Amino acid sequence: MSSELATSYAALILSDDHVEITSDKLQTLLKAANVEVESIWTSLFAKALEGKDVAAMLSNVGAAGSAPAAGAAAPAGGAAAAEEKAEEKAEEKEESDDDMGFGLFD
């Protein structure tokens, strides 16, 4: 078993029990399971998951792309409005080429 995988499982176990994820607790859990892991892995995982809700992270795995950036609330229909603006800009660009007096087939 790889060190990363073992530490990941240990972090999930601690999170599931609503226990704070620390390097010491990860090491203790891994020793109890007779898994030898370098302390760097437990330190990295503890630092990366510090203050994070692991359960919420796992339940929102697929939703990351659709979530607004920096937790900002998106207005209703925000995506549709953005698409309309992009279409308007594309139309304006097409019209500006015609205004120059020459086109592709002239």
From TrEMBL:
Region (Disordered): 66-106
The keyword Ribosomal protein is annotated on this UniProt entry: yes
Entry superkingdom: Eukaryota
GO biological process: cytoplasmic translation; translational elongation
CDD domains, per database record: Ribosomal_P1 (cd05831)
CC per GO annotation: cytosolic large ribosomal subunit
InterPro entries: P1/P2_N_sf (IPR038716), Ribosomal_P1/P2 (IPR027534)
UniProt key word Lipid metabolism: no
Composition skew (Basic and acidic residues), residue ranges: 82-92
Record keywords: Ribonucleoprotein, Ribosomal protein
GO MF: protein kinase activator activity; ribonucleoprotein complex binding; structural constituent of ribosome
Coiled-coil blocks: none
Low complexity composition bias: residue spans: 66-81
Family annotation (HAMAP family): Ribosomal_L12_arch
Membership in a protein family: Belongs to the eukaryotic ribosomal protein P1/P2 family.
Protein name as annotated: 60S acidic ribosomal protein P1
Species, as recorded: Linnemannia exigua
